[in-house]
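Before we proceed, please read the two lines closing this message. Report back on whether the C-alpha cells fit the sequence:
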Amino acid sequence: MPEPIHIAAIDAGSNAVRLSVARAHSALDIEPLQSERYPLRLGESVFLRQHFSKDVFKKAAKAFRHFHDIMDEFGVARYRAVATSATREAENRDAFVRAIKRKSGVLLEVISAAAGRPCWRPWGLKPLRAVLSIWAAEAWRSASSEITTWNKALSCRWARFGS
C-alpha cells in the first residue's frame, strides 16, 4: 500500500470560504486533519452590484494566503479550489481568479452549478468531504477498476500544490 497523501479542498461559496485538509491512506480511508472557515461574503457584493469590490479582493487574498500557508504546513501534495455561484456571476471573475493566484498561489477554478453537483450529491456527502474522497479515489485509481470508473464519471480536476 502506498504512503498516505495529504490532500486539500477549498470551497469559495457565496457566504464563506472553507478549507479541508486530509490524509488519504487509501481511496476509501480518509482522515480529516484540519478544517477552516473564513466568513468572506462573496455573494453580498456580487448579487447587489454584479462585481467584487476592492475590499472583497483584499479579504479574499488574505483568506487564500492563509489557506495556502495551512496547506504548506501539512505538506499537501494535491488540492482542488473551486468557486461557485457568486464568483461565476461576477462580471470581474477573471480578474478575481488571477488576483487570487498572484497573491496567494492558489489556483481557483470557477465551476458551473451542474459541475459541482455530481462531485458529491449522489453519495449524500458534504461537499468538501466528497471532494477529498474524489481526490483519494483518483490517487488510487489504478488499484481498482471500480474506483477508476467512479472517478471518470465525476471528472474532477486537481492542481498540484506549489504549481
Q: What stands out?
A: Residues 61 and 68 are 10 Å apart (CA to CA). Helices lie at 42-49, 54-74, 85-89, 93-104, 113-116, 127-139, 145-154. The two ends are 27 Å apart (CA to CA). Strands lie at 5-12, 17-24, 30-38, 78-83, 108-110, 159-160.
